[in-house]
Design goal:
The structure holds 2 protein chains of 2 kinds.
Chain A (H helix, E strand, L loop, with lengths): L1 E5 L3 H13 L3 E5 L2 H10 L4 E5 L1 E2 L2 E2 H11 L4 E6 L4 H9 L4 E4 L4 H17 L4 E4 L2 E4 L4 E4 L2 E3 L3 H12 L4 E3 H9 L6 H20 L6 E4 L3 E4 L3
Parallel strand pairs in A: 1-2, 1-3, 3-6, 6-7
Antiparallel strand pairs in A: 4-5, 8-9, 9-10, 10-11, 12-14, 13-14
Helix pairs in contact in A: 2-3, 6-8, 7-8
Chain B lengths: L1 H43 L13 E5 L8 E9 L6 E13 L2 E10 L1 H49 L16 H49 L7 H31 L7 E4 H11 L1 H6 L3 E7 L3 E4 L1 H17 L6 E7 L2 E7 L27 H11 L3 E7 L2 E7 L1
Parallel strand pairs in B: 6-8
Antiparallel strand pairs in B: 1-4, 2-3, 3-4, 5-7, 8-9, 9-11, 10-11
The chains are: A alpha/beta, B alpha+beta.
Chain lengths: 225, 407
């Protein structure tokens, strides 16, 4: 899976590529509009992550070109601009997602994966990890082939974990993933805790192993080790 | 008004001057006649008191011993022989000796002609002055109307001028240098305003970008860092602090930028927004936290509160109100929403205010010292209400904090 990261802030581009490379993606970086333009006309990518504000051009133009030459490429916009107009315009010209800076790398990772799943399997495939099987189309979860009933948020949480295996996730990123960013309060962190407790219980009840590890002061990690 | 006063003053003065001059003239003629009379008496030493004519009437009456050495002018009325109406006369009275005995002599002159003269002159004067006054007034009015026309046209254009649009201000050119200069200055100011507005707008957008990008970098680096296996407890503590501070700063930045954007009226889209429906809809997003905090929600819906405003602002307004009511609520508390066509009320239980309720809507007025609260939520609500001409008020009705948004 090849990903192009179009981002002029070198440090951020590096962080993104490092993070996504760990997840098994092959990443390339374009720091300027012209680099990006050149790369998209030469190579094919499964997903492109585009910053809208570039020193020598507008990210929207890249998306438009991309849509013309490689319509199947998934596009995620990352931008500091958080106006509704930008978001609507982004979706109108064919991007698949819009993330406002600053974002969580784990969230970006989850969205890239979900996008690629949608693009390649039409969202109809199953996600299988160890004894856990998730039927994405039906939104059903099986542990050792028995179904476990998860609430909507617990299902989202599990999917988020499965997209970020072996990754330390902050409580804040989980809270934001589940409730969006207008739920910023101490309460939302408590809620993360109780949802995790429930998810853990439901997996173990059906004979699964407890894969959720808490990391002191930071958050949680879904890991087999 | 002033010209009317001057007009009256001039009229009255003029009348007095004419009157004075005519009296002067009559009196000098009376004095001449007195001299004639004295000369005649001295020559003949007698006076036949039978002159018939009213004009130049000389009346001689004997006074027995009551001789006064004085000469007096008086106004008197003597009835007209034919018309039974009194006619005005000017009379010179003096005493003299005729044939050795003292007499009082009164010489009279009719003023009837003089009065007519005064009247005629005054009337003509007043008429002419009045005409002059009216014509100057009309002339001035039409002249100034014509002269000021370009000024009023320009004024109308300045009133219509909208600095949020790109259309430049164009004042009306005229032959009057001062107006043209004024127009130039106004045009310059207008284009400066538009320019400043544009650069402010760009600044808010750029500032957002410039600040959010390094913050995104901090966030990303921290996230990468926490993936390393060998983090000690003190490390995670520091990292958590950095992470929190960066996130807080990013939210603060977004909040302040939002305030600036509302202030700059950058939300120009207008729609008829049903705020009541929006509140009920938004409440669903908060379902989880309401459940988590075991908050009892009461909804009293009696009609929808509609307002022509930016839908984006409507959503922010409603979200912030609900968020505020939940954030400052306690576990097991109550959240009451009542709406009708004139207002929306969001009430919540919660600890009594420690600070001045008047200052509740100010920026950075925080009730709790909790780091999670930014102190911008209600300031944003207030700013939105101000920009959309909504009225917002706070009341504490034990045990509920009531925030009311009304038209």
């Amino acid at each position: 899976m090849k990903i192009l990261v179009v981002e002029d802030e070198k440090g951020l581009a590096e962080s993104i590529t490092d993070y996504l490379s760990r997840e098994g993606f092959i990443c390339e970086v374009a720091n300027t509009f012209w680099q990006a333009d050149e790369k998209i006309s030469l190579y094919q990518y499964d997903c492109t992550i585009v910053d809208l504000t570039l020193p020598d051009g507008d990210g929207f133009d890249i998306i438009q070109t991309l849509k013309k030459i490689a319509a199947t490429t998934g596009i995620i916009i990352i931008s500091a601009r958080n106006t509704l107009e930008d978001k609507i315009k982004g979706l109108e010209i064919g991007s698949d997602d819009y993330m406002t800076k600053p974002f969580h790398l784990s969230e970006l990772n989850a969205r890239v994966k979900s996008l690629i799943r949608r693009r390649h399997f039409g969202g109809n495939n199953d996600m299988i990890w160890k004894e856990i099987t998730v039927q994405l189309a039906a939104r059903k979860v099986f542990i050792r082939d028995t179904e476990t009933m998860l609430s909507r948020k617990e299902y989202d949480l599990l999917l988020y974990f499965l997209s970020n295996i072996d990754v330390a996730l902050t409580k804040e990123s989980i809270a934001e993933h589940l409730w969006g960013d207008n739920m910023d309060s101490a309460d939302s962190l408590d809620m993360v805790y109780s949802h995790i407790k429930n998810l853990r219980r439901k997996i173990v009840e059906k004979g699964g192993k407890d894969y959720i590890q808490s990391i002191y002061g930071i958050g949680y990690k879904f890991t087999a080790s | 008004m002033a010209s009317l006063v001057i007009y009256l003053a001039v009229g009255i003065t003029f009348y007095w001057i004419i009157k004075f001059m005519i009296y002067e003239e009559v009196e000098s003629r009376l004095v001449v006649e007195k001299r004639d009379f004295e000369t005649y008496v001295r020559a003949n030493d007698t006076w036949s008191n039978n002159s018939y004519f009213v004009e130049n009437k000389i009346e001689v009456q004997p006074v027995f011993g009551r001789f006064k050495n004085e000469t007096v002018f008086t106004d008197t009325l003597i009835s007209n022989r034919y018309e039974e109406s009194p006619d005005p006369f000017r009379q010179l009275t003096f005493y003299t000796l005729i044939g050795g005995s003292p007499y009082r002599v009164a010489i009279r002159k009719s003023m009837i002609q003089s009065y007519k003269l005064i009247e005629a002159i005054s009337a003509a004067m007043i008429a002419f002055l009045g005409l002059l006054l009216v014509s100057t007034f009309l002339f001035h009015r039409s002249l100034s109307g014509k002269l000021w026309q370009p000024f009023y046209d320009s004024l109308a254009r300045i009133k219509d001028f909208d600095w949020t649009k790109n259309k430049p201000l164009e004042t009306v050119r005229s032959e009057i240098t001062e107006f043209n200069e004024l127009g130039d200055v106004m045009e310059k100011m207008a284009s400066k305003m538009q320019h400043d507005y544009r650069s402010l707008r760009e600044f808010t957008e750029n500032a957002s970008h410039e600040i959010q990008t390094p913050l995104a970098l901090i966030n990303a680096r921290v996230e990468q860092f926490i993936q390393s296996k060998d983090l000690g407890e003190s490390h995670t503590y520091w990292i958590e602090e950095i992470y929190h501070a960066a996130r807080r700063m990013s939210r603060l930045n977004q909040g302040l930028l939002l305030l600036a954007k509302i202030e700059n009226q950058q939300f120009t889209e207008q729609e008829n927004v049903d705020l009541s429906a929006l509140v009920l809809n938004k409440l669903k997003d908060f379902e989880d936290i309401i459940q988590h905090k075991e908050i009892k929600v009461c909804i009293d819906e009696q009609g929808s509160f509609r307002k022509i405003m930016s839908p984006a602002l409507g959503e922010i307004l409603v979200t912030n109100l609900i968020n505020n009511a939940i954030r400052h609520n306690y576990t097991g508390g109550e959240l009451r929403i009542s709406t009708n066509k004139d207002h929306i009320e969001v009430s919540n239980t919660g600890a009594a205010l420690k600070s001045d309720p008047e200052r509740l809507f100010e920026r950075f007025k925080k009730e709790s010292t909790g780091a999670e609260s930014l102190g911008l939520g209600l300031a944003i609500v207030k700013q939105i209400c101000d920009s959309c001409e909504l009225h917002i008020s706070y009341q504490y009705q034990e045990p509920m904090h009531v925030i009311k948004v009304a038209k």
